[in-house]
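Most newcomers find our protein records easier to grasp once they have seen one. Sequence and backbone structure share a record, each on its own labelled line. Nothing more is needed to start thinking about how sequence determines fold. As an example, a complete record with its sequence and its structure tokens follows.
=====
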Amino acid sequence: MQIVNSIVPIIFVITLASCASSPRTDTVSNDSEKASAQVDDSTLSDEAIPRPEDINSTAEESPGLKTSGPGKAAETPAIPSAKDQALAIKLCKEIGSKLGSVSIDDCLRQQLIHSALSIQGRSLAYRDFPPLASRKPLGNVLVIGGIHGDEFSSVSVLFKWMNILNQHHSGLFHWRFIPTLNPDGLLRKKSQRQNHNGVDLNRNFPTTDWDEEALTHWRTTTHSNPRRHPGTGPASEPEIKWLVSQIAEFEPDVIISIHAPYHLVDYDGPPSAPDKLGSLYLRDLGVFPGSLGNYAGLDLNVPIVTVELKSAGIMPSKHEINSMWSDLVRWLRDQLTAELVDYEHGDDSEISLGQ
């Protein structure tokens, strides 16, 4: 399938009714609701949280602006075609009808940028929080959810983090979010780990060892488990072809990949891992032929953090979501500060987390 290369912003559509056509999943427990009521929002920014009276005056760029590199001024966005808008809106309607913790309006508010098509013709879309005119970012951070279609919380948490940036993006990093890499697996009547072709997308990346080891590993180690089929060849699936092109274009300094349900943080690549994110602690899961950790962390030498949530179907509490976010931003700041040259806002107070 030919990958569509047009990259355009989606215009926000005002208030669509949430008309679920199938049972909504990924709900929040009562205990989580109670915990969320006690959360302190003073640590949510990607640096210091603005006071409520300052939020409207904080520089907030229009989403979906493409840049020519870290710290470069954003270009004028292209006018979206009606077809591209319709594809992104359709994706939001399906996500909002599927997930109990992400409404149609929640999704539409993110103004996702349609970029390519899945096997079944669903939008492969992303959201940028690009550099601000007033400062050069510490680096580019790519955040990926929904590689496995049955890990609902990996999609929902990503939307919650985007909501934080909607209010508090300070330009500390250039963020790119891919809410669901595997929309076909997620949006089936019965969601599945694999994509529509039955391929585990996290075994389909074009790692240097794929040709020699991927199928052998699948047969001997997983006993040909269909949930872990690596595909017919490296990057045989359009979703992986597209993500590989996104990585090449965006040139992330760090990649964050959200999964479930191992309740830990995994890390591949240089130079140092986060000890914890919220209640998730560092534990090495290793790499596999065709995995993103293998491809990015080892082959491309790009640090990759795999966030393994506790449950695939139950959302963490708001407190836990915010704690993971604060720990992540702190680690990113420390990780990337040393690599930045000629940072225009080098004062420590400018990159504090308000803690």
Remarks:
- The CA atoms of residues 48 and 349 lie 8 Å apart.
- Confidence is low (pLDDT under 50) at residues 1-23, 27-43, 48-74, 341-355.
